[in-house]
Amino acid sequence: xxxxxxxxxxxxxxxxxxxxxxxxxxxxxxxxxxxxxxxxxxxxxxxxxxxxxxxxxxxxxxxxxxxxxxxxxxxxxxxxxxxxxxxxxxxxxxxxxxxxxxxxxxxxxxxxxxxxxxxxxxxxxxxxxxxxxxxxxxxxxxxxxxxxxxxxxxxxxxxxxxxxxxxxxxxxxxxxxxxxxxxxxxxxxxxxxxxxxxxxxxxxxxxxxxxxxxxxxxxxxxxxxxxxxxxxxxxxxxxxxxxxxxxxxxxxxxxxxxxxxxxxxxxxxxxxxxxxxxxxxxxxxxxxxxxxxxxxxxxxxxxxxxxxxxxxxxxxxxxxxxxxxxxxxxxxxxxxxxxxxxxxxxxxxxxxxxxxxxxxxxxxxxxxxxxxxxxxxxxxxxxxxxxxxxxxxxxxxxxxxxxxxxxxxxxxxxxxxxxxxxxxxxxxxx
Length: 430
Description:
By secondary structure, the protein is an alpha/beta fold. The protein has twelve helices and 13 strands. The protein has two domains: 20-230, Rossmann fold (3-Layer(aba) Sandwich), CATH 3.40.50; 240-413, Rossmann fold.
């Protein structure tokens, strides 16, 4: 009861469900300009991702764009990264739209890597106007000579006309559900490469464009997946302080975790994080991410049925002598009740975080934070939701063996690597 009373009072002070587009009168950027000359005009880089991509993949694309802006600034270009509002995502049952990043993430922490502003702040500086949309696309003919190679060039659009239309002198597009945004020009860029490849294209084709909108930003890949800069960006993507507080309060009051015995290392400022021994213990519960819905079709070779999942959860919990299991899942309610019944039959109590006080996006981050602080984590193979939890555990210095584990399709073959592929161990570097 105390948890929900606190959440209710918290929302009265600073709501994290919705927001007022006119709430900010000034646009402030605290990031130091690095190699950027003060005489350089401020430029803005906006981006969007394929409509069907989910929350956690979009978080990964942000990292690629942050890397892009960081490189452009290192080259002396005064770019600011404009954060695309969240909205209408597949797993968000509330179908919320125009959700700013500062409802879900600590944008001050993000701002310590590259300067970022919200889209509604951008509109105050450039009222409903974008200079150029650069629509990224793959090469129509595929790889050159059947081999992958870094390359880019302006080409005729292959599918951009599905999403943009010409109205008089200007172009119109989706633009995060914001109406009346005018686009001066649209070009299509065929590209194979990394964020640095896109930086080269911007320098060559758009050297003086003030506002660049990169669409289908997921087309480019990381410069160095799992490298030092990757982890700097990932560490800067801290969840909103209120969401972390709600998650920790749930752990204390529902899971009965003693926070002083966690041994979790998490400095106030991510830039103060250092390479340390893997000393984190976590709370005395097992965390499980059980992916269902579309994964039952698209990843049928790896996703276990409920009975198989229950057998594995029970086995791991018993080996670890844990009687509490925290479950985060997109399963239907009747499936979850069935799973809980099976766990209860083995004297294991299942817990879930549920509330209507905050948005679906906020709930997913609370889920991830609770799961990340468990004594042991079992994820779903290839799920980006599970990836993000493992990254959080790496940041908090958990042992590798308690982090990189996935549920198996066949419980009876858990020890068979051919039928039970475990996640790659992408460990943190500093």
